[in-house]
Structure formats: structure tokens, C-alpha cells
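User: Hi! I'm working on a homework problem where we have to compare a predicted structure to a textbook description. Could you give me the structure for the chain below?
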Amino acid sequence: MRKLTIFVLLVVVSLCGFAQDIPQHISYTRIYEFLDELATDNIIELNSAIKPYSRTFIAGRLNEALWQSDKLNYRQRKELDFFLNEYALENNHLPDSKITLLKNEKLKLALLQPAFHYQDSLFRARVTPILGMNVSVNSNGRIIKRWIGAEFQAMIGKHLSVYGSLRDISNNGDTLSSYKYLNLQPGYEYKEATYGGDYSDSRGGIKLSNSWGSIGLVKDNVVWGDNFHGSNILSGRAPSFPMITLHLQPVKWFELNYFHAWLVSNVVDSTYSYIENDTRIWYRQTNKYMAANMFTFTPVPRLKISVGNSIIYAERNVQAAYLIPIAFYKSMDHTLTKGIGTENQNSQMFMNISSRNIKHLHLYASVYVDEFNFDRLKPGNAEANPISYKLGANVSNLPVDNLSFTVEFTRTNILNYKHSIAAISYSSNGYNLGHYMGDNAQELYLALQYKPFRGIDLKLSYTDAQKGNEYDYLRRGTYNGITGTVSDIIKQPSLGDVIWTNKTLNFSGTYEVFNNVYAVLQAEYSNIQSYEPSGAAVFGERRMTAAETLNYFTPAFLQGKNVTLSAGLSFGF
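Assistant: Happy to help. Predicted C-alpha cells:
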């Protein structure tokens, strides 16, 4: 009984004693998948619609699972011990390591897993190196990707946290990431290069937090909406952007998430420029901002209903109204921008439902609404509302332990995510903030995952993605000799002529040898093809030949039928 009392006190201290909020980046997919598995098995409760989670939050959920370790299978218990070691500093102690170079009661320098940790009564910190290489080969060529950098995280007192990371990436070969390409590769702004593409990725921030909320200034990626293969609300694919964040959870049944972001418009402001040597003019980009909120309610345990809205606006200065975290921004916009010769900003609404009420089964759905008109629902009205929806199910550890199955379907209507004014489109650095397939598209994703031992993830997945006719958002006028309005565009049948398809069968194996030390092997068969649309063009349609379509949506390395083999090793992620 005494030991049990001590253990409970340790859990309470770890959950409540510290409240730092250092985000765990979404690229560490193994911890996100493990928490999702624990929630689906009804071990913990989780709002998986909002990512990233904080490292303190993750440590708390792992401690909850430790308290119920008798409900875990052998592999899960080993995974739990492994992850608890990764988040040891959040539980106020130094982690174990395989090879230690220097250690005392306050600090530890380890070679395996490579990291420096420090803690005292006021200050806790970690520094980890980032180093890795991945090689991909198919009949179209070879890509060698290398990266190097470091990550720093610190917790000061009980409420303040700071973090930062820098990765410098060298890509020798075809570039797989572009705002045009229809894939899940993270977005980057490349440096100028004659071959391949080099880029850097710097993230970081400072947060003040307590047990029921946090506020911060960060530059990071966010994902909103349950998904296993790309969210249709906020996918996190665009390059990280700076933002003010707010998270509040004063009671178990309600949670608020909000951010105000500074996006990259890629639109030149002709009135804002620098002059070099009185001869050359350098123009700056138009300001672009985004405000978004999500309210999550838990009416019964393990049922999460999230609703929210956002607005993207381009003003000379930040609009104070959009700093209000609980506002309905479309209504505010109607007041702020109404008038002769003015135009509204770009607003959106969304909803996510997640249910884990049946043990081993996670059901989820999300809807993104670009604009909505009830008249379009009337019989005989050919116009379709620009919306996107996702339906998904994940079965975990049933009927076989360590085996999971996922099915996910996404459908997005014409002109969803787009806007007639480029400066307020639903994008940053040109990358769509929503689903990677963009508008007028659909995707079926199936995945079978098996985890036989601690650290080993084997996954077999199939993707069937289709892209329909490509349209520019034109409200009215003449386009390619055809006169019309936006109504003529959204009257077109959803998908219509399928001009691009991707059928991919992928097998991947990942082994996290030590904390933050990975080995990855992957074999993939892909068939990516394009087709010319049939019939006459309509207003707003961007006509391309099959070859132009393939080059526009697909990197040369992945065009056609390919068997691609990849292998990689990394310290950090």
C-alpha cells in the first residue's frame, strides 16, 4: 500500500507539478501513432484533432498508461518504457542511455542515444543533434537527401518554456516537394540551385503555460483534423509560419485552440519596395494573416466534437478583431470590409467528430466549408457548395495484437481552398493549407500496420487518388475566349474528366533503434498518369495536355510506372 501511494504521488506530481508547453513536432509520427493506439484501446483519452501535442502533455498520457500497464500487451509495455525514457526530463529526471560520456546529478552527455541533458531546481534543458541521409532509386534516377542540424529545448521554472531547431537539408536529385505537386512531401522554400534543391528549416518559440492553458509566440507546423493520410482542414504541409497561439482547457469537457499567423503571400506589393544604388527596385510581398479557432466538446467520454472557423486576410496591419480567439470571423469581416469598392476577406468553417466509444475502434469525420449556400441544396440546382469532407476508421489490436487497419476517404469539391484574390487564398508560400490533393479531387487510402516488437513498424498501404478538371477561381469575365461567371464553374460535375491519377502500393519498415535514432527501408510501386479532358472547355477551366498535366502535378522522378526503393538512417527527425 505504501508503494502504491508513492507511485500515485509521483504520477500526480508529473501531471500537475509542471506545465511547460514545448510542442512535439508532427514529424515524430511514432509517438503520435502510439498515443492514438492507446486512446483507441481505451487506455487514455485524447483529442487527436489538434496537433502538435506538447511534450508535457505526452508525458502525462504516458504516465496514465503506466498506471494501467496491466491492460497493455508485451510490445506496448516495452514501447511505453521506451517513450517514457524519451520524455524523462518532462517527468523531472535524466533519461537512461546506452553509452554515457559524462554524468553527474545535474547533467548528462550521451553518445547513444546522442543528447545533452541538464536539470536543476529552476532549469531543465536538452540539446540533441540532427543528422541523416536517405537514398531513393527508381528507373527515373536517384535522389540523395542529407540533413544536419540541432534542436534545443528548455523549461524554466514551472511555467516558461523555450525551444528552437535548425535543419539544413541538401537534396541531390529531383525535388519532390512543390506547391504544385500532389503528394505529402513537406513544403519548403528552396535556395537557388542549378541541380536538386537545398533548403533550411528553422522552428522555435516561447510559451507561458499552467495546468489549464498556454499562450505562446512560435514558428511551427500545425495539423487540425483527424487523419492518417493528410488532413483536409489544416494539413501541416506548408512551411512552418510564425503565430501567436492560445490553448485553454479549464474543464475536462471543453477545450479551445486558437492561433493568429503571419503567412507568406507570394504576391508582390507594388507600393512597398526598397531601392538599391538608386537603380534597382526590390519589391516586398503583400502582408497576409490568418486567424483560426477550434472549440472541442466532450459530451460523453471518448466522443470529441470540434467546431471552428478561420479567416485569411491581407491588410497593411494586423486587424485587432481577429485577435479575439472566440470570434466568428465571417460576421466580423462583413462589418469591417463592407462598403463601396471593398471586398470581403476569405473565411472558412470546419468541423471534426472523433469517436472511440467502441474499444479498439476509432471512427472520425471532418468537414471543411469554403462557402455554403442552402439554395444549392435544392433539387434541380446544379451548383455545388465548395466543401471538403473526410471519413475514416481505424481498428487497433483486433482481432490480433499489434495489428491495425485504417481506411480513409477524402472528397473535395470544385474551387474549394481557392479564391479569386491571390493574396487571400488558403495557402502559405504557395502551398495549400488544406488537403494535399487540392480541389476537385478524391482519395481512398488503406493501410495495414503490424508492430511485432518494440520500435519496429511494418506498414503496407494503398493509395488511389484522382484529380478532376483544373479550374481557376474567376468570378466573372472572359477566360480563353469564353465568357461566364463563377456559377458556371461550380455547376460542373464533381471530378468530371479525371485528368490525373495516382495508384500507389507502399511497404515500409521503420526501426527506432534508440531514442531518436532511426533506420528506414521502403519499397513502393506507383503508377501516376495524366489524361487530356474530353469535350469543349468551359469558363475558368485551365486546359493542359496530358504531358503538361503530368509535369504540373508530379515530379519527374515519380512520373509513370515506377518501383522505388528507399533506405535511410537518421539521428533526430
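For your comparison, note the following. The radius of gyration is 24 Å. Residues 1-18 have pLDDT under 50 and may be disordered. Good luck with the assignment!
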